[in-house]
Design goal:
Rossmann fold; 6-stranded parallel β-sheet; 11 helices; 341 residues; 5-stranded parallel β-sheet; 34% helix; globular
Length: 341
């Protein structure tokens, strides 16, 4: 009889972080019998503010035991800095789980059984398996289901529909007024060329961006979602009242335009098999390098193109880094003490 294994996905309560660990765990569950549960790590001050390498493991271990409760995982997958502290501490659990960290852990990689960072972070080592971009939950099946659940206005027939996915300021890009003006102008021009625009902002998007996009659009069947009113951003398959339509847009769009600041959205758009254009933003003096390296890698792989003012759909090569990472997790986990046949 096959024994069902148990996986614990850890994040910090932010959808973009949580969906990476959950997505990896769910992808592993398609390969082996696996029950997946999620917990958000919220360490107390000052532990959460300390560098990962200096934070006391006792506090992280105590918190991990509290959030695990009776759930004893065979596999732990963490995403984000707080989760990394808990994943490191999990080596002291009994029985000891196989411990995986996605994103750069900001700690020595030998503190984990496996680290799955984005290629653009430049990490290396015998237990490091870099992938292009970020893992996620948006499989083609989920995108199709989310598209079917979109409100009618978002999925009415259109000859050409462009999904516009808008991020916001981060350490690489300020998302300045000039950037907003260029983005709005580009979207308006594409609409005049016959594209039906379906735009969605994110939680990082400044409040004035959605109105600027609406103002740039001519009359027509265009839709703009303002994520400041989202209530279900952590649930990527739920699309309803005041929910972000972004997952479903990938299923109804003929092409996607995504701002360069978001690794997750570009990764998920490419994984959904939708031709993806990356809209440039003015980089900060420091901090934009890894985002630009990721952009160049996506373009080199043939799953995205630089946006130069024109959008034309093309046939994409298969791109599924989440599944590729899940296969690697299983291959290495089989040799760990926590693997049970």
């Amino acid at each position: 009889m096959t024994i069902r294994k148990r996986a614990l996905a850890l994040g910090d309560g932010r959808a973009g972080i949580d969906n990476q660990s959950i997505g990896l765990a769910e992808a592993v569950a398609t390969l082996v019998p696996l029950d997946v549960e999620f917990r958000a790590v919220s360490l107390p001050d000052p532990v959460r503010r300390l560098p990962t390498a200096l934070a006391p493991s006792e506090a992280a271990l105590s918190h991990l035991r509290n959030i695990c409760g009776d759930f004893s995982p065979d596999l732990i997958i963490g995403s984000g800095r707080q989760a990394a502290l808990a994943v490191i501490a999990a080596r002291r659990l009994s029985p000891r789980p196989f411990r995986v960290q996605t994103q750069s852990p900001r700690a020595p990689v030998d503190r984990f059984d496996l680290v799955i960072p984005p290629e653009h972070d430049g990490l290396s080592g015998p237990n490091v398996f870099p992938i292009l971009g970020a893992p996620g939950r948006l499989t083609r099946e989920r995108v199709t289901a989310a598209a079917a659940a979109l409100p009618p206005a978002w999925r009415r027939p259109a000859e050409r529909r462009l999904a516009v996915l808008i991020g916001g300021p981060n350490r690489g890009f300020a998302f300045a007024e000039d950037d907003v003006a260029r983005l709005a102008d580009a979207i308006g021009r594409l609409a005049l060329e016959g594209w039906i625009i379906a735009a969605s902002t994110s939680r990082r998007t400044p409040a004035h961006v959605a109105p600027a996009i609406r103002a740039a659009l001519p009359e027509g069947a265009h839709c703009v979602h303002d994520a400041s009113c989202d209530q279900s951003a952590a649930e990527p398959t739920k699309v309803g009242a005041r929910a972000n339509p972004y997952p479903g847009l990938l299923g109804v769009a003929d092409a996607v335009l995504v701002t360069v600041d978001s690794v997750s959205m570009a990764s998920e758009a490419a994984s959904a098999g939708t031709p993806t254009y990356i809209f440039p933003l003015t980089p900060r003096r420091f901090g934009a390098g890894k985002f630009l390296r990721f952009q160049r890698a996506l373009v080199a792989r043939g799953v995205a193109r630089d946006f130069l003012g024109v959008a034309t759909p093309w046939d994409l090569a298969p791109f599924d880094e989440t599944t590729r990472a899940a296969v690697e997790i299983v291959a290495r986990w089989r040799h760990h003490e926590s693997w049970r046949d």
